[in-house]
Write a structure and sequence with these properties.
Length: 77
């Protein structure tokens, strides 16, 4: 069984590990979590969300550009 503190750490790691955070940054965030510096955790999640939104926007733009080429290719045939 996990303690509440361990579960919080697991949530932070699983939420941020696929974003822009390196292991050293995660260690610092986990330390902030242990010492109840939750504003830093909140800021980190907000920053990660902004980065993910930026990446998603870029991917959508890429798909839109690709669709232009696909349409041109289809018109040729």
């Amino acid at each position: 069984m996990f303690t509440v503190s361990e579960l919080r750490k697991i949530l932070v790691i699983s939420s941020l590990r696929k974003t822009i955070y390196y292991i050293e940054n995660l260690k610092d965030l986990l330390n902030d979590l242990e010492t109840n510096r939750l504003t830093k955790i909140d800021q980190s999640f907000r920053f990660a969300l902004q980065r993910l939104n930026h990446k998603l926007r870029a991917q959508f733009k890429g798909v839109a550009e690709l669709m232009k080429y696909i349409e041109l290719y289809r018109e040729d045939f």
